[in-house]
Amino acid sequence: MTDLAAAAGTSASRIELCAVMPVYNEEEIVGEVAAAWLEALDGLGIDYELVAIVDGATDASEQVLRAVASRHRRLVVDVTPNRGHGPTVLRGYRRGTKAADWVFQTDSDGEMPAAGFARLWELRRNADAVIGIRTGRRQSRGRRAITLLTRLTARAAFGCRLTDVNCPYRLMRSSALAPLLALIPDDTFAPNVAISGMLARSGARLAEVPVAHDVRTTGVASILGIKALRAAALSFGQTIRLSRARTHKI
User: Fold this and answer.
1) Spatial contact of 116 and 169, defined as CB atoms under 8 Å apart
2) How many other β-carbons are positioned within 10 Å of the β-carbon of residue 128?
3) pLDDT tens for each residue of 68-98
4) Reported pTM
5) How far apart are CA 109 and CA 217, in angstroms?
6) Cα separation of 180 and 135, whole Å?
7) Which of 136, 166, 203, 225 is 20 to 30 Å from 2 at the Cα level?
8) What DSSP letter does each residue of 125-168 carry, written as one string?
């Protein structure tokens, strides 16, 4: 049994927040990132868990995280065979909706700081989801085109007018997220795009907040060049199919 499964099986009551952090080959920075998030969430006085899901990493990411977890009980380390970012995010979301009232996702590369979360947590009082808008983000021309296509797809398919539909810095109410997860296959490549659209179409109260986006200082993006174009095509097709699913109004 993984640490994640054990946590799910022994939880006596719901907590306020489950923060989900997918991890793939980030040994140089993931310990620092996890520690920053633990400090930030502790400082807000939240009853939470930080779930780091190591998705088939081939480096020492797992060992680094377990060292941090040995010093901080709020960090849960789960290790899975490599399935890709989307399925890993969905794994965390499904866990989160069962364990907590709110689910948050952030990446493990340190590009968006933990300090920005306080604003999202404050805005939750009048929202079902608070989605970040990455500011200062540097993208190649190809990446910018893919980002634009993604936003236009969500708008055309769902009527979603969020600025950053695929932002991996998002806080969602479990009661709004859980019904949507039931419609999304586990192998979905970019589930956040469809989730943004489904939230908008369901009538969920959405808020947006700018979040600083820094250039990564370690590692490299796992999907570049032709792989990024293929990934964009796959995401487009899956998003269109998911747009046909019946979404109940909140």
Assistant:
1) yes
2) 21
3) 999 999 999 999 999 999 999 999 999 999 9
4) 0.88
5) 8
6) 28
7) 166
8) GG-SEEEEEEES----HHHHHHHHHHHHHHHHHH----S-TT-S
